[in-house]
């Protein structure tokens, strides 16, 4: 993910930036209040917005916004902060609050904010913009980046999460097993460990924009909370759209979802039945253009069986993930590599003599899906680990081409 140096802004500058962003986002009567002390009555920004309910009723809202530039200390907003601001808002006759922070809210604070909307005792709509939200806004308004002299930096510690194979309940669920990856999912912790990374294992329900990268170590299968509603898959799309790097370590991404009740992989595409005239048996085929990857990313992958190919990088590939030749891995087991020719694809590793990218990043919104088109073995795993870490360290997402 892209990170800005929020430490370069003092409190006044941060509040002024937030005020301008609220105007750009369409709020009305936006004005910054009188600064610290009793004059502002605990309000950093006042704004208004008319909302239309499901029944068509227009609801006039008055918004109390509070700005917290906490990036340097990496301090999260807590539940008590939300409750204090909500109480102040009711006293001053506001019916909405907005917390704007350069870092994030704690999980408990987010739960409190969401619960307020359905709790009659509060009668307050609570919302928040995290540091990742601010980055996404500013990527759309480059003039504000220049006006406030915001520079892109690499944070001192990268937060990398690894899916542990569970949807949400580690006690009752059957954990996901890999497809076309021969690397134990637990081995990704040591593979990603370094002085500049902090790694953690998370369930599918814990996917969040607080992570710079999220790794799916299960290859073509991914742990899904509720496939009919596509709950996990939609959470992954939202994560990528908001600037995240989602890494699929092997094969065709999102080809199967894991059914935690039955303990098996189930195709995400719609199987089509054909009669095999040779033996009169029914054959079920899933076409690549009937999968989530094609529907949402517009990408088709190589349909060949696993095969050994020699690999290399061009100089332009190295600006995103560094020189991978230092790993001394000259050939890989290519399987479902990305086909060349799509403008939203960033090549990271190329197949000798073929228009294929065994490692590539696919842009979606403000983020990327890193595709490892390999039948992954232990000897090849360092390629994926190094590409992931180097992409983050070089802010690869900032350099990759925009969707056309």
Query: How many beta strands in the DSSP annotation?
Result: 23
Identify low-pLDDT runs: none
By secondary-structure content and strand pairing, the structural class works out as alpha/beta
CATH class of the largest domain: Alpha Beta
Helix percent band: 10-25%
Give the integer mean of the pLDDT values.
89
Instruction: Specify the number of helices.
Output: 11
Q: What name goes with the CATH superfamily of the largest domain?
A: Class I glutamine amidotransferase (GATase) domain
Strand residue content: 25-35%
Do you know the CATH topology of the largest domain? Rossmann fold
Radius of gyration: 24 Å
How many angstroms separate the termini? 21 Å
The CATH architecture of the largest domain = 3-Layer(aba) Sandwich
The spatial strand order of the largest sheet comes to 9-8-10-12-23-22-20-17-18
Which overall shape is indicated by the principal axes computed on the Cα atoms? Answer: globular
